[in-house]
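To: structure subgroup
Subject: Chain for Friday's discussion

All,

I'm putting the inputs and outputs inline so they're searchable in the archive.
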Amino acid sequence: TPIVVDAGDVARYLKRRRFHDEAADRTSVPGVATGLAVTGVGGDVLFVEATSMPGESGMTVTGQLGDVMKESAQIALSYVRSKADQLGIDRADLEGKRFHVHFPAGAIPKDGPSAGITMTTALVSLLRGTQVRSTVAMTGEVTLSGRVLPIGGVKQKVLAAHRAGLREVILPLRNEADLDDVPEAVRAEMTFHPVDDVAKVLDLAL
């Protein structure tokens, strides 16, 4: 006799839920982007949150960050301010606002030039009121002119994205050759977007 299991029976058979689509949960509101990092034990998925509030213009950055990442955040905000018109952002939304960029995994020290495009995407997502696509992770540094600079740890970062169920990765064009280090079985399940300009990152992510 066939046994029918429907949605209401799943919890009874499998008990409490052990796995969650964290990227989908986190990016369900504007202002959150999914980045990738290298830690002492390999690659990891890193969420970046951005918000704003009335106050003196400027930025607060939190989450146990080193000086390089704090500078990246300032560059990201300066890029957004300088390119607001091209980015479809109302300049009035930038005036009289203090921005806060936060990396929620506060117990893990973080530094290095690889989260610039993630911070830029989180800020633009916030200012446009548009969610970041939940299937996309990204890594890359950004310059004031919007160039995307290469980073390290591509293999570890791609493997971390794959483990987390993310199937698209945006990375710097100059890191495209590093994808050869990623196991072929993983590469076959993923889509990669090598880019050299942060405007392309935003087109892909938002």
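Points worth raising on Friday:
The first helix runs from residue 10 to 14.
The mean pLDDT is 89.

D.
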